[in-house]
Amino acid sequence: MSHPPILSLRSVSKSFAVDDTRFHALTDVDLEIAENEIVALIGPSGCGKSTLLRSVAGLEQPDDGSIRIAGQPVTRAGQESAVVFQDHRLLPWLSLRGNVELALEPLGLSATERRRRAAACIDLVGLTQFADSFPRQLSGGMAQRAAIARALVVETRLVLMDEPFGALDSILRSRMQEELLKIWQRHRVSILIVTHDIEEALYLADRVVVMRAQPGHIHEIVPIDLPRPRRRDSAAFSELRGRLLRGLATQDHEVAA
Ligand SMILES: Nc1ncnc2c1ncn2[C@@H]1O[C@H](COP(=O)(O)OP(=O)(O)OP(=O)(O)O)[C@@H](O)[C@H]1O
């Protein structure tokens, strides 16, 4: 990695109290993400993907290890990162513009500057003509684009996405993946994305992190050296899909054993 990493996790462990014992959701996780890199996290249910993402977002406190964004230890929620969840979490009583501007409130900007920045991000996700619409008037894909605008407007260098397109049908999902890449090409940020969908990981990511459960840990990190735009029907894409599927299948077998 030629530049200093935007995100660095060192020996991160996290456990939860369950009844009288501790459940180890993450053990000894080491991971770095470079500027402008897209990294996808895949793995079976319960392997700690969301726990890892929430820890980076400052929403969980690791028991051990360190998490640094741009060299600074993460000590509070929303520090140098913004999160896009599976459900858009837009406030129903605010317009799209109002929701995006609200994210800027803690920054203490003038109303004019808030409006300018919100308008630029709404434009970036192609929703200018819906800026005054309310969440109930937006389709599922539009609402997720609005959530992306709200994450980008705060101008953090790291965007965290937890199954952002998981609730969309497969056609819309593919379209949103293309749109996300276009947005990423225009507005360079680093992205850490949790997904259950191997194809989504392969289509988007520079590297795919394969996690395993019991306890949650990183099993392998697979670089995806395919040029963009990627063709889902290419031989190289299928080969990588097979490799990731085999890794996950082995794991299911091991967990079941
Ligand atoms: N607050 C909590 N209290 C107790 N256990 C928790 C808590 N949060 C997560 N866990 C447990 O930690 C493990 C990892 O959860 P996590 O949600 O990170 O997994 P995941 O890989 O994101 O799963 P999925 O793919 O199903 O969303 C799970 O077994 C879960 O039950």
TrEMBL record:
Keyword Transport (UniProt): yes
Signal peptide positions (record): none
Keywords: ATP-binding, Nucleotide-binding, Transport
SMART domains hit by this protein: AAA
InterPro entries, A to Z: AAA+_ATPase, ABC_transporter-like_ATP-bd, ABC_transporter-like_CS, ABC_transporter_ATP-bind, P-loop_NTPase
An MF annotation (GO) of this entry: ATP binding
Domain ABC transporter: 7-238
CDD domains: ABC_NrtD_SsuB_transporters (cd03293)
Family the UniProt entry places it in: Belongs to the ABC transporter superfamily.
Record's protein name: ATP-binding cassette domain-containing protein
Organism classification: Bacteria, Pseudomonadati, Pseudomonadota, Alphaproteobacteria, Rhodobacterales
